[in-house]
Structures are given as C-alpha cells and as structure tokens.
Amino acid sequence: MPKINGNEIKPGNILEHENGLWIAVKVGHVKPGKGGAFAQVEMKNLRTGSKLNERFRSNDKVEKVRLDQKAQQFLYENDGMLVFMDTETYEQIELPADILGERRPFLQDGMTIQIEFHEDEALSAALPQKVICTVAETEPAVKGQTAANSFKPAVLDNGVRVMIPPFVGPDEKIVIHTDTMEYAERA
Predict the structure, then answer these.
(1) Cα(92)–Cα(120) distance, rounded to whole angstroms?
(2) Class assignment of domain 3-65?
C-alpha cells in the first residue's frame, strides 16, 4: 500500500491508522503562529463506526488503502443477513442488513449494488443513486394548492415516509434519491 504525507490527506481517503481502517471525513489544514503546519483530520472507523480526531504533520507518513469495488446482485434476506451474488463469478456472500443503515428499505430483489472490499472483507455497500418506488398512500390533492414548493406526506410501498408534490397520487411510481431519501421525479 502506498504511503502518503500527512498534508496529502483528503476527505474520502481510506487510511490504515492504529491497526484499523479509517475514512477521512473532514480535513482542515492549520498553520499555527508557532511550530509547523499540520492537517487536522476527523476520521471514522469503517469497521466499528467510532470517530477520531487526529493531527498529521507534513512529515508523518500514513498508509493509504485502496478498496476494491465489486458489483453484487441482491438475492434475498435470511435471519438479518443479506445474501448477494457476484455477477461475474456467481459466488455468494452474506452481509449484515445494517450495512446499508437507514437506506435498507430501498434494496429491492435483483438490484445490483456496489460493495467495497478490503482484501476479502466487505466494508461498505452503496445503493444506486436513484430507485423507483410506488406511492402506497398519500393525502388527496387540495384544490388551489399550486405553490411550487408545497409538498405533502406520503408512505411508499417499502414503508418509508417521504414528502411528494401535490400532483402525485397513490399507486404512482416515483424516483427517490437514495442518498437524501427525497422525491426526485415521476418514473
């Protein structure tokens, strides 16, 4: 793995630090009046989720880790474990359902997602940026409510509550941004 200087750390970099894998969340470069400049790095552990603030001087060396991304197809859920299949080798892996966090309801049968691996350990999973869902229930449109930014609550077929425009009704298919969990457009 390549070693980089402490002042080369950028947000999103994966670092091996204190026998763990950390992702740099925030990086601030500080030039104090006395002493040398340093990078103040807020990191999150990829395995445990704990956070750490660390200072790295320009002459400090840290290991930058590259994660391998593989496309995996979701097959089914079994006892809190999600079963995925590698689309090239047809090997199956099981990951805990909480790897997706609050975005778990947007995972659909047969959906292909990107899973990041370090050696043979799966560290994170990313859903597609947009998914198509069906509105299960919502309030009827109020006559005369045509303001551009007026939204009404709705429940999707996967149980997630979102805000949708007044012109969208029940049983309509809509596109949802998985990163913000907000309405994007009609499908």
Answers:
(1) 13
(2) mainly beta
Cβ neighbours for 120, distance < 8 A, ≥ 6 positions apart: none
With 0-12 / 13-18 / 19 or more C-beta atoms within 10 angstroms meaning exposed / middle / buried, residue 154 is buried
> Are 68-126 and 130-186 the same fold in CATH?
yes
- The residue behind tokens 């980089």 is 4
| pLDDT tens column, 73-105 | 999 999 889 999 998 899 999 988 888 888 889
Q: Where are the domains of the chain?
A: 3-65, 68-126, 130-186
Average pLDDT, consecutive stretches of 10 residues, N- to C-terminus, the chain (187 residues): 86 89 90 89 88 91 90 92 91 88 89 90 87 90 66 91 90 91 89
Q: Look up the CATH superfamily of 68-126.
A: Nucleic acid-binding proteins (2.40.50.140)
Six-digit token string for 143: 């006559």
